[in-house]
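Repro case for the chain-ordering regression, as requested:
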Amino acid sequence: MDADTVRATSTHFPRSTVERTDTADGAGKVMSMKEAVAAFVHDGATVSIEGFTHLVPTAAGHEIIRQGRKDLTVVRMTADIVVDQMIAAGCVSRLVSSFVGNSSAGSLGELRRRIERADPAPLAFEEYSHYGMVCRYLAGSQRLPFYPLRSYGGSDLPSVNSDLRKVTSPYPGPDRKPEQIYVVPPVNPDVTIIHAQRADRRGNTQIWGLTGIQAEAVYAADKAVVVVEEIVEDEVVRSDPNRTLVPSHAVDAVVVCPRGAHPSFAQGYYDRDNDFYRAWSHISKDPERLRAWLAEWVYGTADHAEYVAKLGADFWAGLAVGEALSEPVNYGRRL
Amino acid sequence: MDADTVRATSTHFPRSTVERTDTADGAGKVMSMKEAVAAFVHDGATVSIEGFTHLVPTAAGHEIIRQGRKDLTVVRMTADIVVDQMIAAGCVSRLVSSFVGNSSAGSLGELRRRIERADPAPLAFEEYSHYGMVCRYLAGSQRLPFYPLRSYGGSDLPSVNSDLRKVTSPYPGPDRKPEQIYVVPPVNPDVTIIHAQRADRRGNTQIWGLTGIQAEAVYAADKAVVVVEEIVEDEVVRSDPNRTLVPSHAVDAVVVCPRGAHPSFAQGYYDRDNDFYRAWSHISKDPERLRAWLAEWVYGTADHAEYVAKLGADFWAGLAVGEALSEPVNYGRRL
Amino acid sequence: MTTTAPGTVTSSELLSVVASRELAARRTVFAGIGLPTLATELARLTVAPRIEVVYESGVCGAHPSHLPETIADAVIVSGAEAVLSMPALFGCVLQGGHIDVGFLGAAQIDRWGNLNTSVIGDWTSPTVRLPGSGGAIEVMANSREVFVVMRRHNPRSFTGTLDFCTTPGPDRALAEGIRPLGAGVTRVITELGILARSGVGEELRLVAVQPGVTVNQVREATGWDLRVADTVETVPPPSEAELRLLREDVDPDRVYLR
Amino acid sequence: MTTTAPGTVTSSELLSVVASRELAARRTVFAGIGLPTLATELARLTVAPRIEVVYESGVCGAHPSHLPETIADAVIVSGAEAVLSMPALFGCVLQGGHIDVGFLGAAQIDRWGNLNTSVIGDWTSPTVRLPGSGGAIEVMANSREVFVVMRRHNPRSFTGTLDFCTTPGPDRALAEGIRPLGAGVTRVITELGILARSGVGEELRLVAVQPGVTVNQVREATGWDLRVADTVETVPPPSEAELRLLREDVDPDRVYLR
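-- result from build under test --
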């Protein structure tokens, strides 16, 4: 009759469901970036950092660098500047990705040195396509053993990535013959970190504009940290429940970090710093210059608030955006 | 060099992409319910009618009855009142569903007579669970040969539904042994009909509140008819693009039909007619009474506008809802 | 609407109160409509103030202005913390393993907690066609544990052999080589008492009787040779406080209370 | 920003104009950023007024206030007709078969339109590590046809043997028993001319040369024994109207035009 006895028998249940942090008012989830990284990102962990060009959790990556995490496996569809920085800081030993470039602005210098010349150390790399990564998150979030997709037929990728495998459909194909399809395995990060526009204190997270694969990356993970531009009152979130892409039951930590996506952008909050993307190709090409950049902007700042202040008000004015409000919809109330 | 030559070689391409109706201003998609049913619902067709308790396209079902369609295969997760009515009217020879009941309000009389006693005619029935149906739509919309799910192990359903099959995962299970999982086949209806709050003239369709499986049901189908409470200006839709669950490229017809979901509801427009749900258990229990109901309310009305008028203003006042507006979000504009 | 005389406890009230107590320390519950709604809302006011109700329709963290009449009632949508798509609800929340307790009902249940909601009689030409699974198969396969509330406790409902197994517990799944996530049915709550099991390989056994009910009465009402716990408790009757909350705060309009 | 002298047509302008013409009668195009953006926006003003641009980031029916600088630029989101989740974009729109033309680029292309965007040299220790597939594998596998715009036409880029096949055309897929949806690469547009193929089993062949370019020049710039159509057309040079639209309406700030 004891609940704990019952619980103990269901050994296959993911850890996450019982261990999500919470307090009566949910405020236990709200913490500083420092606390969240210390609590949820451990040496040797598999860390998913998602945000497809939009809402890249850069500030979280910087805090991981400041805390000197080692031997991480980073899972990220578009491994871009923040990943190059984490690699350069010595945090990353393995990368799982479908695009390793500096957006359309050039190269990632450190990543290329690692992969091309093992300089200063090798980097293990698992290469996928975008939809392959999407499907790995879908499988991970849905607790599926694999996810099928109509990609990879004829590609050389399966020859360098043995996790791209094939399954025969138990239904006949269009020509009535057996049909084969590639599948990818689930990814289940130890922790997923995403950036979002806003959440309530319990972690109900609202994102608009490009929503990418963030919700699935959160559900796929054992722990989830949501970094937000602002925490809003419960009433704001509840006025538009369809906007909540990540419900509180999937979130372990809520971190308030305005402008934490820079040089990426937050739709409706600040624009993308395209100049920095272009600059990064040059900075990262020169290991000395890269080290100096990290020293000044990451190690040299105590937290993201200092980084933001250091950039200065004029700089941020240049990324300011105007207003384009959504028209309200009526959810209705019973009379 | 001729585009048609190129096109002709890609024989596996779904018909739908080339045949979506449209005109320069998109107005060619806006048509009456009568026109849409005549154009897109044919005898013998597989018709998906979705809307999970919310936004049930009842008016479309009634027009199918008025036009006397025969031999339809109806695909619907929750086969409820409108399906019972279509069966009673002789439109349906096969039903694919995961719940054949009158919500929590009782039974579907006609459906039960058909299945229990073949009275007055048999009804072929393919039984699934809700997630099995969801996965059939997911497979259909994503052009997958099958979709895996962790259901059905130990159930008697596979013994009466040979489309529930198993696949062995090419990755070892948690115990390192081979892992088996059930899969369902795609469903690709000839036409899917959904009801929504609003769309623009091109068919960009916005739904809020319960969104069910409507988007996937549309993408799974060869043709799609969207019935809406109202057509709005392009600017309204474009002020909140995340609210668009079905983009225009997936829509063939837009039908304006206010209150077309009755006795179901449209969040923010009118409430559910729970009295009618309760009444239907009695009406449908008696074949004579059911026939009289159809005669009066479906065959006896030229279209849904007449049905609405016949119910009367007082009736609709009883289902009116108050205002609970979503707080606007800022999408931002470049300065 | 009927008014319940003080002191008289109806069947609905008894079942709701007993079920609500079982929700202590649970975080997420997948609730159908009716008795599970009452039990969950009462638990929120008593033993589980932070419990999150997840509805099959996609609603998480509902804050309804009125007691919902269906799992898709407009009042659970307005003011909710999140409304998810059906693929997200069934795929990520349920199959992803985020549900502590799922509530299910059934026309028939067997000693392992397997359920029938499809047919009475033969599936191909049934005596009674029932609604079918809905999401029950998924709730059973993916919840940490499942509570069943049965209005009728008699040998036809509590049967040695199901007419049809719509919703299998983990024992049947394992026999087919499919590994279940949770424990299956761990509590069956009826007017006569509480049956319980803790997981795979274990039959339901009688662990408590309602006041005034004998072990023998429960055995006779059960269609198989019911195992009985070494110590059978007597269910504490609904307290004044529980009944008051249920009648005045949870369901003042008697939507489900009878 | 540079100003282009009237009368002088830059490489970017030439490629954009030629590519835009190929979009006549197409309904949906999956466009990357750069030359495909210019070509598509010009086509909207000329041969394909109703063309819908779908971006990898999830945007359908963009109405940008400024020329987007990335496929995820904020200006393609504000005012768009729809923004879809990534699973919906890749699963329903792309794999579901809703894209008429996909635009791709590559470091290397072979005679069948197979593409390399992964490495120069050996994959395990490459001379140059390139960005990889992104969504290119999916665009190739699922679009009705694919256009490739190549800034450089030389034997290293147009190669007899790819260093690595990231993104296979349908011939390679079929050889592995996987049935492709579309025709693969049907157009390759370069400064020298246009190569074309119509589908499975067919090599790229030269169908048109830019004004002043000889067939032999194209053959020498191509790393395999290039087939040539019976009649090789000369590409009509960009018209005054096309250039004016491109320079004044599509990219007045010279974001991509060089």
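Ordering looks correct now. The first strand of chain D starts at residue 28 and ends at 30.
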